[in-house]
Amino acid sequence: MRVGVLTGGGDCPGLNAVMRAVVRKGVQRYDYDFVGFRDGWRGPLEGDTTQLDIPAVRGTLPRGGTILGSSRTNPFKEENGVSRIQENLVKHDVDALIAIGGEDTLGVAARLTDEFGVRCIGVPKTIDNDLSATDYTFGFDTAVNVATDAIDRLHTTAESHMRVLVVEVMGRHAGWIALHSGLAGGANCILIPERRFDVDEVCRYVESRFKASYAPIVVVAEGAMPKDGEMVLKDDSHDSFGHVRLSGVGEWLAKEIEKRTGKEARTTVLGHIQRGGTPTPFDRWLATRFGLHAIDAVRDQDWGKMVALQGTKIVRVPISEATSKLKTVDPEMYEEAEVFFG
Amino acid sequence: MRVGVLTGGGDCPGLNAVMRAVVRKGVQRYDYDFVGFRDGWRGPLEGDTTQLDIPAVRGTLPRGGTILGSSRTNPFKEENGVSRIQENLVKHDVDALIAIGGEDTLGVAARLTDEFGVRCIGVPKTIDNDLSATDYTFGFDTAVNVATDAIDRLHTTAESHMRVLVVEVMGRHAGWIALHSGLAGGANCILIPERRFDVDEVCRYVESRFKASYAPIVVVAEGAMPKDGEMVLKDDSHDSFGHVRLSGVGEWLAKEIEKRTGKEARTTVLGHIQRGGTPTPFDRWLATRFGLHAIDAVRDQDWGKMVALQGTKIVRVPISEATSKLKTVDPEMYEEAEVFFG
Amino acid sequence: MRVGVLTGGGDCPGLNAVMRAVVRKGVQRYDYDFVGFRDGWRGPLEGDTTQLDIPAVRGTLPRGGTILGSSRTNPFKEENGVSRIQENLVKHDVDALIAIGGEDTLGVAARLTDEFGVRCIGVPKTIDNDLSATDYTFGFDTAVNVATDAIDRLHTTAESHMRVLVVEVMGRHAGWIALHSGLAGGANCILIPERRFDVDEVCRYVESRFKASYAPIVVVAEGAMPKDGEMVLKDDSHDSFGHVRLSGVGEWLAKEIEKRTGKEARTTVLGHIQRGGTPTPFDRWLATRFGLHAIDAVRDQDWGKMVALQGTKIVRVPISEATSKLKTVDPEMYEEAEVFFG
Amino acid sequence: MRVGVLTGGGDCPGLNAVMRAVVRKGVQRYDYDFVGFRDGWRGPLEGDTTQLDIPAVRGTLPRGGTILGSSRTNPFKEENGVSRIQENLVKHDVDALIAIGGEDTLGVAARLTDEFGVRCIGVPKTIDNDLSATDYTFGFDTAVNVATDAIDRLHTTAESHMRVLVVEVMGRHAGWIALHSGLAGGANCILIPERRFDVDEVCRYVESRFKASYAPIVVVAEGAMPKDGEMVLKDDSHDSFGHVRLSGVGEWLAKEIEKRTGKEARTTVLGHIQRGGTPTPFDRWLATRFGLHAIDAVRDQDWGKMVALQGTKIVRVPISEATSKLKTVDPEMYEEAEVFFG
What we know:
Four copies of one chain form a homotetramer. The first copy, chain A, is of the alpha/beta class. Chain A has two domains: 2-138 and 279-323, Rossmann fold (3-Layer(aba) Sandwich), CATH 3.40.50.450; 142-275, 3-Layer(aba) Sandwich (Rossmann fold). Chain A has twelve helices and eleven strands. In chain A, the strands form two sheets. A seven-stranded mixed sheet of chain A has the order 3-2-1-4-5-10-11, with helices on both faces. In chain A, strands 7-8-6-9 form a four-stranded parallel sheet, with helices on both faces. In chain A, a hairpin with a 2-residue loop joins strand 10 (305-310) and strand 11 (313-318). In chain A, helix 6 packs across helix 7 (176-185). The longest helix of chain A is centred in the middle third of the chain and has 22 residues, at 140-161. Chains in contact: A-B, A-C, B-D, C-D. The interface between C and D is large, with 38 and 38 residues. Chains A, B, C, D: It is an enzyme of class 2 (transferase). Chains A, B, C, D: Substrate binds at residues 126-128, 163, 170-172, 222, 266, 272-275.
């Protein structure tokens, strides 16, 4: 058996740990061969490969990023994309593909398996934790750690200067990072894309916080939107990739708070540092276990399946089940957090 | 409603976060009063109380340890222990007790509720993650982070000096910390109390590792034991509390490895630093949610119950269910990890 | 002897450590009394005081921020500012003042001592490390650590996505944080206020880096300026406090790089997290020693002096010497770093 | 010019950063060639070399340990050691040697240059910071960070359980790590090799600390000795390498404190984790600058010299000057710290 591996979408701490586990178990237990495809679906599309064996993955467990590179190439948007992939798999003697990626990358894998019989196994990957069917994705815990560390640091400035601090964290469509880091960091208000916010209510939290204690910290997901749609972002605030929008909601909100409360407000946009660096032990553990179970799924020829975490168990679910619906923040969990607002 | 709170057993990052959540939600949502009992069950036994209100818990979210102090006092081993507790609860107008602790502390709470009608709610606490009925306990992720950070650091010495490094981590009866940190840290062998180890097999891993790459790192839980019982520990290696045994299994194993392989071996015993410091974001999140659900259990008068994590949900289970059986490492998980041995 | 203490200007990790050392040594060795003035020079100006004794400073060594609060109030810009301060010192029986602050705060102390006979001792404080007469100021090492950690994290994204990453760090007038964190983080180009940069040269570094290895990281101090003055910042990019300018040079530079090289470029603005959180051990050590020597200067009645680090010694220099001239980056040190550009 | 490089003695974070700087500047500015010698002086002695060029050092800035390996081989203790080295240098066309190491490694370099005309430049390296002529050595700041982080963590256990915690840190002959980490971590007593300690005095500090606040933390350097020489260590406590002595002074002291005060006491021995992991930004900066200046010394043919830090300047001193006398803790600095004892 010769297995191709690719990583697609935004980079995410733990990608290398998945591949290391796949290769270690595949080689040592099942005597498989591996080939790495470069830059997500661009690799099989263009036949761009790289060596992937035990020496190649040695020492990669603690390394963020991906040794295979990544891209957002979608073969269904390329001319003859599917047939070119099929030809390249034949050409490189590849019997099966492990695709590690988010909604888009896995969506391609699901269609390739279901519609064209390409033998794919999926491994879910998203910083944002917004894939269905799995309790968590690796990279999320690392992002929450980076964001919480930043919030911890901002408390001292908030204490010393009596100003409002707005922290913009990742999360275009789901507020998991905002919710977890905001709760862990002791934020006084958490704003998420799932629930349009009322600027006046935010200002009330800000003012009540100033009365009770020291200055407030507001955590806002980059995709959060005000209730009445009055937010006017700068033209250049939208980028195709979507992870640094310097003139985004955080900056806008800080200005609104200043205007409405008269308090000084400052914004910090954490940006890419949330997806970089060494994965936390939790993410290394999850990524490693995903890898071990993905190669077992190959052995079981369980094509079209994706590994997922449910409780402390790794299970398999149809890829399509995981990608058909975004996993947004549970309203009950958000309400739990509201006790700390203000 | 006036609610007493106590923390028992070894300290654990996240204890303060639980209490902060209990008090914030109890005061703001349910208009309850609180009183803190000092040093675990010694507090209600001797009527030793302290103020526990919103100012008392402010700023404690990131602080390790417990503002209430802790002890291993067991009222069932004290003369008239139960009746003294009952009298003190009456004397301080306490309607319900939230007991945050491990097997022993919760065992007392279960008996007090079941046999004597004392209205108790339990919150599980153990660094070792060995309580049944909950996927994880707070403090465990922090301990795994400290241990993994130490293993990460030791890799550089292992690389540069070609010597065997043995890391002894916490875990008297269960190997969870060893398993998680060993896997996350890329250890070449992990030894746990649940499975007696064969020193010769460990030496084979050590030697195969030297051949394949650089020097090996062996992670051993403090409670791990060799197969044939030949381990002779120093007399003073057993202490009543059980967390620093400088002459324990790690040191013994390093000497055996030196003797049998001729390679130099060194031991690091992490000890108390695994249970200290600020809780990780995961532990703050879990501890906070445990606190929020514990006070809901008080409101629901669901006495004798304990909050627990199952998947991403907080549920309630009978305290006795959680304490009747130790949650040891699942043999399948251990076998997963063995692919990385050697 | 009764000694007043105040902290002025932006907050800085280590302020509390200075005060703890001042109070511990002052009380235990010299039997002095202390009083804290709130919010920098606003405190003595308005007679706003707070208790400052051993219990008040207990546990503050690892805490960032300042328990006294801070402000940028300048008594020389207030009506009868000096005489109001003199009256309040008499009113509160204050024999001497220890002023902990940067250029502005210390400048006031120098004038009060030299022109009005107020008995002041200075302790230098600046994140930016730009005060003369001292090798380092506390807070700087912490800021460099935060910035370097961020750069370390960005390397993984740079590796995986082949895009230019621009990191904007603190430093309006001096590039010390940029230089130290850029060198420690392995940046491919470092831009500082002391030397106007040539965008085309930056683009050449960017392109040569892409050829040699993976994607480049550019570290730019917030006060760095292009050679030909063509930078047009957004109107709102200037704030009175000066530490978060979301539309500053980093964002501008990323756009220029994209325009001129055709490579995707992203910006991260670290902002306030550089001045928050627990001080590094170096900063705690320096701040503690500054405090110990400041109270010795009070005992020696060495008014108008400031403590300073020279090598490993703490010395005293006239405050005015330290504040008369900004300590900018030594051109030789910058040239040393250039070997790593590109 | 062809330059050989070697690293000797215990590993130390920053070794790779030195070599990276040496090679980057040597290749790019001076067009030199390099060759790495493996495992300290064993490399030139046995002619064991490895490639050392820009690709070899890429990515090594943040990596602890040494890519060249290390040993404690001393050519003056080997038969015909010097002539074998001279032959191997000729054989590999090596014009000059950069020796990175501590007292022993540099001592060999000094003798080879002074007595045998071998062209050596030295770079000082010691975790312990005990080399003369330089304010600091790289690796020291990292060790102090690891030790301080451990002490910070232990405070929470000390608070919660009212027990004495003894932390044994590195430092066989000099107490710099103990002094810096003890001061930065808020220890209540610091014991160093330079000054024999009085156990009864330590017990007095312990008891006064219990009265004033919570439980005491005692930091003890591994080489500290009691006044009256009554310390009986276990036979196996002495190892040839000297960095893990599990039955050393820390454990002994904890037992004495228990015996004399009746308080429970626990020991943590940090061991090798102090010398592992990524170097701090300060150490990367210092190591990088040492490397840049070492290659300049080669260019200047300034043989027999060692680079050193004095204030913020890198200077050159005769190697023999640095190695002739151990730099022990300045008694004045120790007395400064005593204000925090008890």
